[in-house]
Write a structure and sequence with these properties.
The complex is a heterodimer of chains A (586) and B (413).
Chain A (H helix, E strand, L loop, with lengths): L2 E2 L3 E6 L3 H11 L5 E4 L7 H4 L8 H6 L12 E4 L7 E2 L33 H9 L15 H15 L7 E2 L2 E2 L23 H12 L5 E2 L9 E2 L5 E2 L21 H4 L1 H4 L5 E4 L3 E7 L6 E7 L5 E11 L3 H10 L23 E8 L15 E4 L18 E6 L19 H11 L3 E8 L8 E9 L5 E6 L4 H19 L5 E5 L42 E3 L14 H19 L10
Parallel strand pairs in A: 1-14, 2-3, 2-14, 3-11, 4-20, 14-22
Antiparallel strand pairs in A: 4-5, 6-7, 8-16, 9-10, 12-13, 13-14, 15-18, 15-21, 16-17, 17-18, 19-20
Helix pairs in contact in A: 1-12, 5-12
Chain B lengths: L4 H15 L9 H14 L1 H4 L13 E4 L2 E4 L16 H10 L14 H4 L4 H11 L23 H9 L13 H11 L5 H4 L17 E3 L2 E3 L15 H10 L9 H10 L5 H12 L14 H19 L17 H4 L4 H9 L1 E2 L11 E2 L8 H12 L11 H13 L6
Antiparallel strand pairs in B: 1-2, 3-4, 5-6
Helix pairs in contact in B: 2-6, 4-6, 8-12, 10-12, 13-16, 15-17, 16-17
Classes of the chains: A alpha/beta (586), B mainly alpha (413).
Chain lengths: 586, 413
């Protein structure tokens, strides 16, 4: 029997980026807010100071930075004819755990989606006609213009470095000319570019493209954010993604919010406690709180007026399923919505090898790069191409971590002395160009509960059924050719193209940009949450994170995740608190 | 919502209002408020609070060269606190260093400074303390060897080193200077740390505010006139440091971080400026030229510095002002006593989070990573580079401090 705890106004499940944003916002209204995090407390000087942050073996290869698969993982299969098996070791994506969540170990590439991304269904149907069979793309239910102030807030919170390409409708040279109008320039200048970016920039310009600096949450200079939190200048050590930053140079909950939030008397954080389910009243239409369990296996009932799921997309979706909120999607019937429209992203690229030029990519940072956006979203005419969407193409110099990266030219054997020789010769003289492709929703890619495997508490694991779609493949083939065109012009001796072919493989790392499962939309018939991320079914439950994306855009998602969190927090503060209940009438 | 946002705010506001004047029915708000400010200027909370426990209930162990002295409970709880003390009792303790039973107080309680406070200030402090939540908490026994454990021994100490008397302004100086002098020498008791002590633990008058050592930290020279430890600091620099915990030259950590957290960041800006005016008027002593460090040591120190330190502190020691402390020109790096620089390399340091700068930017520890020789080399390098003029540090200096820190002992035991 769960021990009942004193009630709080708001309980947040999970304490990463969205948890910290919601806690900071809602405590400003005097609400008593409790965040429950299943992982550990983590702060910069204790857990990833400069003396241990750059430990490649420990953090990445031994997976100390990520969720423990021994306690909970997910099962995977490419399609419904297969039997899903548990992922016992993370590969293609790396769910975070602990305070700060995945925001501790992200690269910091902080984008706004395009205005057309938010209306992907209506926009593309209007321009190109009906969608292909099986495609379940839909509109977000919120527009770019509505989210603009919230993108801006997050960029200022984080000290994003970049160059505006569209300032209040005016196109600025040097920025991304395709971006939606922004109300302000980036709060920091772009990062310092290296040799590889200069070559990419020149090649892109030769092709008539508009290269611009990637928007970066690695500080291009010392920065004090609007809360007074200080971020130090990036040292370009090349340990961002998969690592915590020891220099306070990467925006995270730790560097941007926690110094202020943790001092508030109306905020409490409970770590090492896992929420097992959201508790509903007898009508099933109201959440009364959550049930959580501590490290000793003691169960607690935490009553709350408002429950907000702030865990990772996979965990939020699973919690909805385990709590019996909404119907789980069934691809055979098309019934149910929870778990529907699981999407990912499609990455492809090319390596460029130089003979006499040093790229020295160990001088790198997670979001140090030059990009082009000509082939993203609907920035180009897709007529006759057989796909919608696209992706940005970039030359990021994120790192040259020696265990992880050994670029070798075409034809190099995979091991032995010839391989070693090639690694040594090319380690400091190579770079890469990559396409960051969108992922469109299809009826046969989805999440549900596994019939066989369970977690440490005996609850069914999440089952992922996913493969690249016809749209993905056509798009990736197109983008890879665009990558090749740029890479060939960068002045190297040779290039090696890595297209995305074959079925999706859950093992090689690709990206931790899993989306969908708790999608947002215009009505209860097409979505799990409304435009304010409020559950249609249970109006005192909100769901944050990339699970609400109806399909994934050709950008890294954190900027949009955070903007949506601010947007939802604003709706809670200005509308819900005045009149609790559904914010959108069904 | 069960509890509406508005009502939650209203509740918080009323709870706050209720805690302030409740026990002080006979005193007016302005008197209590005056006392609250006196308490801030004296940083009573720092010493009279055990880490992580109720404020002002005492029990914090102060490491002195003579042993550990535990601070008493200064809430007005009658059994274990000051609840039975009269105003006169309190005045006698503050002004004469004497307990109500006539016994003498250890000067770890800095009454040689508090003695300079006028009666009205002390009474106001009494009235404010009376309003604090009362906490029942016994004081642990002091850990002092005989005869120091025998309080009568303090009579001789007081006779030799203590001259009670309220601060008298210097008519030749400005009001601002006098206010600063009163604060520095009186309630703020800066000399408690920043003045070297004699063998009996009393201030060496000739070394007034020229730096001291306590709890294995070297407190820097804070004279800010020519040749002083803070000669390069402007008045604005001093005010900024005391108000925000950072300035263009350094960041506060260790014991000074408590002073800023509980005391100076809450002080009126005019008072901080007064302190700055007074310190700027204090000349320092010309320093002797330090010995030249050996070439091999400097070579090793340079390599370690570029490997482990330069990412934050910059290759020229300029740091990132207000983020990562500059080392060039730093009073802590440069001081005659290298204890602090060695200790920071060993243990790391956390810049005090303040209202102005909430981020507790922290340097990591290197004690597990660098040997005594390596710490000595890099300490020597930073003390003699970029115009710094600290003397070389030896591996045995590092080993000694490592040992003292491991033993948890003061410097003279």
């Amino acid at each position: 029997m769960a021990r009942k705890l004193p009630p709080v106004d708001v309980v947040l499940v999970g304490f990463g980026w969205t948890g910290a944003i919601l806690a900071q916002e809602l405590t400003e209204d005097g609400l008593e807010v409790l965040a429950i995090e299943r992982g550990a407390w983590r702060d910069t000087p204790t857990h990833f100071p400069t003396t241990v942050a750059q430990d490649e073996l420990r953090w990445y290869w031994r997976k100390e930075m990520f969720q423990s698969t021994a306690r909970e993982t997910l099962t995977f299969r490419n399609n419904r004819s297969q039997t899903a098996l548990p992922m016992r070791r993370w590969g293609s994506f790396l769910p975070g755990e602990g305070v700060g969540g995945g925001g501790v170990h992200w690269n910091g590439q902080t984008w706004r989606f395009l205005p057309s991304d938010f209306v992907a269904a209506s926009h593309n149907v209007e321009r190109y006609g009906p969608m292909r069979p099986g495609m379940t793309v839909q509109d977000y239910g919120v527009t770019y213009d509505e989210l603009e102030p919230h993108f801006d807030r997050f960029e200022k919170l984080c000290g994003i470095g970049g160059k505006a390409g569209n300032l209040n409708g005016e196109t600025l040279v040097g920025g991304n000319p395709f971006e939606g109008p922004r109300s302000a320039e980036y709060p920091n200048p772009p990062m310092h570019m290296t040799f590889a970016q200069h070559r990419f920039e020149a090649a892109a310009k030769e092709l008539g493209l508009n290269p611009f600096p990637g928007p970066s949450a690695n500080m291009s200079q010392p920065y004090v954010n609007p809360l007074g939190c200080q971020l130090g200048p990036c040292t370009y050590c090349g340990f961002c993604e998969k690592y915590g930053c020891g220099n306070y140079s990467k925006a995270s909950a730790q560097t941007t919010i926690l110094p202020v939030l943790m001092k508030k008397p109306n905020f409490t954080l409970k770590v090492h406690n896992e929420v097992l389910r959201v508790k509903l009243d007898s009508t099933g239409r109201r959440a009364t709180g959550v049930i959580h369990v501590d490290q000793n296996g003691e169960e607690y009932e935490q009553p709350a007026d408002l429950v907000i799921l702030c865990a990772y997309q996979l965990s939020n979706t699973r919690l909805m399923m385990l709590s019996g909120i909404g119907e789980i999607y069934n691809p055979s019937t098309g019934e149910g919505l929870v778990g529907k429209n699981y999407c990912y992203q499609v990455m492809s690229g090319a390596d460029v090898f130089f003979d006499d030029k040093y790229t020295n990519e160990f001088v790198g940072a997670g979001a140090l790069g030059m990009c082009v956006d000509e082939y993203n979203g609907d920035n180009f005419d897709h007529s006759g191409l057989g796909f919608i969407g696209g992706g940005y193409i970039a030359c990021w110099t994120t790192h040259n971590r020696p265990i992880e990266r050994q670029r070798t030219p075409e034809g190099t054997p995979g091991w032995g002395s010839a391989w070693k020789k090639a690694v040594v010769e090319n380690f400091r003289k190579s770079t890469g160009v990559g396409a960051h492709g969108a992922s469109m929703a299809y009826a046969n890619n989805y999440l549900d509960l596994d019939p066989t495997y369970t977690d440490v508490y005996g609850r069914p694991l999440m089952r992922m059924t996913y493969d690249f779609t016809p749209n993905d493949r056509a798009m990736a083939a197109f983008l890879t050719e665009r990558v090749r065109e740029i890479a060939e012009r960068m002045g190297g001796r040779e290039i090696k193209v890595s297209p995305r072919e074959g079925p999706y493989d859950s093992m090689p790392y690709q990206t931790t940009h899993n989306t969908g499962g708790t999608i947002m939309g215009s009505e209860p018939a097409n979505s799990v949450v409304n435009r304010y991320l409020q559950s249609w079914e249970v109006s005192n439950l909100f769901v944050m994170g990339a699970g609400v994306f109806p399909q994934n855009a050709g950008y890294n998602p954190t900027g949009a995740v955070a903007a949506l969190a601010y947007w939802a927090a604003d709706a809670i503060r200005t509308q819900y608190l005045r009149s609790p209940g559904p914010l959108v009438q069904a | 919502m069960r509890r509406h946002a508005i009502s939650a705010v209203a509740f918080a506001a009323s709870a706050f209002a209720a805690t302030v004047p409740v026990a002080a029915q006979e005193t007016v708000y302005s008197q209590v408020e005056r006392g609250r400010y006196v308490l801030i200027t004296g940083n009573c909370q720092g010493c009279h609070t055990a880490p992580g426990e109720e404020p002002f209930a005492g029990g914090r162990g102060l490491q002195t060269p003579f042993g550990t002295i535990y601070t008493p409970n200064i809430t007005f709880e009658p059994e274990t606190g000051l609840g039975r003390w009269s105003r006169d009792d309190f005045w006698r303790a503050m002004h004469e260093g004497m307990a109500p039973d006539g016994s003498r107080l250890y000067p770890a309680f800095p009454y040689p400074h508090f003695s300079k406070m006028p009666r009205a200030e002390v009474d106001a402090l009494y009235d404010y303390l009376a309003t604090l939540p009362r906490v029942k908490k016994e004081k642990p026994e002091n850990e002092l060897p005989w005869p120091l454990s025998w309080r009568a021994s303090l009579a001789g100490w007081q006779w030799m080193f203590f001259d009670p008397g309220v601060f008298e302004p210097n008519p030749e100086k400005s009001d601002q200077w006098n206010r600063g002098a009163y604060l520095v020498e009186g309630p703020a008791h800066c000399g408690g740390c920043h003045t070297e002590k004699n063998v009996a633990g009393a201030d060496k008058e000739s070394r007034h505010l020229m730096g001291g050592q306590l709890e294995n930290w070297a407190a820097p020279d804070i004279r800010a006139g020519p040749n002083g430890g803070l000669a390069d600091w402007s008045e604005d620099d001093i005010v900024e440091f005391l108000e925000t915990g950072r300035n263009a030259h350094t960041a506060a950590f260790s014991i000074m971080s408590e002073v800023i957290e509980y005391s100076t960041q809450h002080m009126a800006k005019d008072d901080l400026r007064a302190i700055a005016t007074y310190l700027k008027d204090m000349e320092g002593e010309e320093r002797s030229v330090p010995a030249e460090p050996g070439e091999a040591v400097m070579e090793a120190g340079t390599a370690i510095y570029f490997d482990s330190c330069s990412a934050c502190h910059a290759s020229d020691g300029s740091g990132v002002p207000r983020f990562f402390a500059p080392l060039a020109g730093s009073g802590k790096v440069n001081g005659e006593d290298p204890t602090t620089v060695i200790r920071v390399i060993l243990e790391g340091a956390r810049a005090v989070p303040t209202k102005a700068h909430p981020s507790p930017l922290t340097m990591p520890a290197f004690n597990w990573k660098l040997t005594d020789e390596q710490v000595a080399a890099v300490a020597t390098y930073v003390r003699s580079s970029w115009g710094n003029r600290g003397s070389p540090v030896s591996a045995s200096d590092v080993a000694d401090l490592r040992q003292r820190l491991a033993d948890g002992l003061g410097p003279d035991r």
